[in-house]
Amino acid sequence: MMTLDAYFLYLIRSISLGLVFALGFILSGFAQNSQSYESFVPKNYSIRSSFIDTAETDITYPDPKKVLKQSLMIPGWGQVTNKQTWKVPIVYGLIGGLTYYSVYLHKKYHDYRAAYYNLNPDTPDDNRFGDTPDYIPDNANLSALQQNRNFFRNRRDLVYVFVGLSYALNAIDAYVFAHLRSFDVSDDLSMGVEIQPAIIATNYATHAPSISFSINF
């Protein structure tokens, strides 16, 4: 059976990989969408007038900046505004699980720190970090106590970083999808095909008739 520490170690590794791939995918996809629309759509041309039916032009979309602020204030609020309520349990499960694990590691760190100082003959036995927990024997090896103390402290600090990354990813997810909500990704996108006669110049300073073929997206 997997222990609690081993389970959360596996969870942290999975989250680290997920954060890297998710951030890369979301940010790269958003950059590509932004560049494609800026490249092919004139500045004085309305994207919504081309891709959204006139009957739906009165639809209002959430302001990405407002959604970002909402997610920073209360995790999951931006997802609710984006009508993606199904993400809220994922957000709180991720942040809540990591926070619970950080509390567990913090307690373990304090226990071994107290035991190390209380059982160390070079430091006064004044219990300045609290009493030695009952599950740590009085004849415990000082080197092992020090290693356990450092291990739980480093692991706790690492989990703090992942809590912050999860909180930031919650805000990034809400911000990006607030931008993407106004994009029409349906199969029935407008496309115009135009065939018309044209005149091209030849090598002998004359002109020859031709046909031009253009596709407008």
Core attributes:
2 strands; mainly alpha; elongated
Explain how this protein is built.
It is a single chain. The chain has 217 residues and is mainly α. The chain contains 6 helices and 2 strands. Strands 1-2 form a two-stranded antiparallel sheet. β1 and β2 form a beta hairpin. α1 runs parallel beside α6, α3 runs antiparallel to α6 and α5 packs antiparallel against α6. The longest helix has 39 residues. It is elongated.
Write down the secondary-structure element order: HHHHHHEE
Identify the overall geometry: elongated
Quaternary assembly: single chain
Q: Determine the N-to-C terminus distance.
A: 57 Å
Give the spatial strand order of the biggest sheet: 1-2
Helix content: 55-70%
Compile the SSE list and pairings.
Layout: H1 4-40, H2 47-51, H3 64-73, H4 77-81, H5 88-119, H6 142-180, E1 192-201, E2 207-216
Antiparallel strand pairs: 1-2
Helix pairs in contact: 1-6, 3-6, 5-6
Concise summary:
With 217 residues, the chain is mainly alpha-helical. The protein is built from six helices and two strands; from the N terminus they run H-H-H-H-H-H-E-E. Strands 1-2 form a two-stranded antiparallel ribbon.
